[in-house]
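Async update (no meeting this week)

Hi team, since we skipped the sync, here's where things stand on the single-chain job. The sequence we agreed to prioritize is pasted below, unchanged from the tracker. I ran it this morning and attached the output directly underneath so nobody has to dig for it. Comments welcome in thread, and please keep replies under the output.
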Amino acid sequence: MKFKSALIFTLAGSLGLSFLGVGSAGEEKLGPDPKEVREVLDKAMAFLKTKQTKDGSFAPKVAGPGVSALVVAALARNGVASKDPLMASTLEYLEKQVQADGGIYNKFLANYTTSVAISAFQEVNKDGKYDSILKNATKFIKAIQQEDEKNVAFGGFGYDAKKRPDLSNTAFAVEALLAAGVPKDDPVVQKALKFMSRCQNLPGEFNDQKFAQKTTKDDQGGFTYTPIDPDDSKHKTADGGLRSLGGMTYSGLKSFLYAGVSKDDPRVKAAVSWIRQHYTLEENPGMGQSGLYYYYHTFGKAMQALGEDRFEDHKKVKHDWRRELFEALKKRQHADGSWRNETDKTFGESNAELATTFAVMSLSYCLPKR
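Output:
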């Protein structure tokens, strides 16, 4: 199946005619024109085809099988079938990265790459073909969760079992486990939420860490990268607190919502309040242009999970966030169909395959949910 025909099926047939501009009179139309989205995606996919290596992988030196797994998940979400030649060869490559312990990794980033690979295999597991891989990979993820209840790291996930946990890796792990069918009330999910709560600038019952007690008004409710020995001192406040970051806050919010935490929960309400205060698609709040495409994909996931078609910011301005996300991505796409973040020194988005894949994933949230 060609990319374009797959996209036409997904955008038109699956979404319904009302979102193609032929709804009833007076019906509010949200999001961008699906035809525009298809054009941007066609260009992006044409670029990705030029970057696939002979073994089916994408940027293996950047993150092992991580980028390849993100490519599969992103394309699948945009309607590309697993039988498509690009998808088929990438899936074959990913299968070869399955280790004896059930993890899906090469030499490093075992949790991260296994988590995104679980999401990728789950997206295309329509006939149960990957059931065994998913079962074993899920066991692997569960086994590397931090288990020392007396340690602030309890419940978290790092890049592998020996690395200190952070919110990003924990969010990827939670998303993967839930996608693989792990129940929301499973202990591994609930323990992960406890760690993530300790990453939120919300002093009280869910976060007793010292940095939370020093939260500024501007940071209240947002999430930081890790409560354990932050890598970058510039994210510390003058009083010793930790800055809230855009990509991390959307990661925390969507993880809570995915795991069934109520919208009335104080953690969710506080995160949404912070987002209303810092709503933007021009930068990754707290990090500027760094990690911008990572930010876009967590933004899309969290906004869809939140379910507000028009998101109201603190100034009472209502945003058609799907359209705004699309416009932000469209204007940044290069002539060759790629996205690159040349200023990024933290998330590796100067690599076009990684930035483009995050952008394609983000585009899958730009049209109203089926």
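Quick observations from my side:
Residues 2 and 63 are 28 Å apart (CA to CA).
The longest helix spans residues 34-51.
Reply here if anything looks off.
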